[in-house]
Specification:
Helices cover about 30% and strands about 25% of the residues. By secondary structure, it is of the alpha+beta class. Bound molecules: zinc ion (ZN) (2 copies).
Amino acid sequence: MQQRLTDYARLIVEVGANVQAGQTVLVAASVDSACFARLIAEKAYDAGAREVVTRFYDEQLKRMHFLRADAAVFDEVARWVPEFYNEYAEKGAALISITAADPELLLGVDPDRIQRSNISTGTALKGFYDKQMSNAFPWTIAAIPSEAWAKKVFPDLPPAEAVERLWDAIFTAVHVGAGDPVVVWREKIKTMDTRAAALNAHRFQKLRYKNSLGTDLTLTLPEEHLWTACGEEAGTGQVFVANMPTEEIFVLPDKRGTEGVVCASMPLSLNGNLVEDIKLTFEGGKIVKAEASKGLEHLEKELDIDEGARYLGEIALVPYRSPISEMGILFYNTLFDENASCHLAFGKAYPKFRDMAERTEEELLVRGMNDSLVHVDFMIGTADLEITGMTEDGREVAVFRDGNFAEGFGV
Ligand code: ZN
Ligand code: ZN
């Protein structure tokens, strides 16, 4: 166990954030993850970090805050909060977030409080998130189990055993335990880049999604869009991996060009509440109807945060037969579930264009890049998902058949 923990921490530091000598590292973690945060700090110093700064929070205090604080505080953000994050972003610090979230942490909290908090925090930190999503600095998110989370994933096991099982699942998902994971990941980045290149070669104009769950959706890709895999380059020049695990190849849509219906294939933990059986209807790019069998009020609140929340910001392709989906575990955590399934996100887009360097933000917005305070991934992949690409010259190309990449996109 100790060896796997050390390997995992080193992987997050060396491949996830790819910490460079002399770089400042900011670690965000819950107090329950303190032991692991120390291990991360140790590996960051081993990699030559100038300073490791840690921001701890406590999930139970967060819940208490949402339940008991004066309602007015949800419209406020202390001045030091954006100052703190902006300062480290400007320094080009590497950001490492360790999550261990209870998927239903905020069960029973007034959705209005959550929405107001998301608006005030999202607004105060807009500059920071813009920098993060355009990769001004390297950042990575990884997870470790908490008892509350493990109990959701393995409800029939005693808590200690559930935590152990979740550790095993996480290690499998991030390829820890089979040789040097740093080497495994460097190889993986190369393989996934090849697949992204195969998608880019087609310059698809549209993608059509269909499955028996009821999805019948057409997506439009913007001019000069760039499919991207896990190895991304930060403004600081270092190649980093934003999510661990990751199995996705992603791009942004032209926000105006989404038409039809999409049905989610897994529950979504949204703002500490579960939303199930999501069904979204699009017209002219906009979500005009949202349905869910559970947690609809939380979904509606999120979609009402701003105009951009009702438009898509991400298209991600993940084979149904991915190493994570083959474990057959529903994680109730987007970081894992989205890498077991094709997904979309509503809200802010990651700017992914071939000619990024020569374009202003205004020019990218004109091409249909979405902006919003929110970015919410939801899973839509199924064993029978078919995705067909349409090219500029009117050809149709099979991209996904029976839930997996079709021939020509590698396996
Ligand atoms: Zn994604
Ligand atoms: Zn996303």
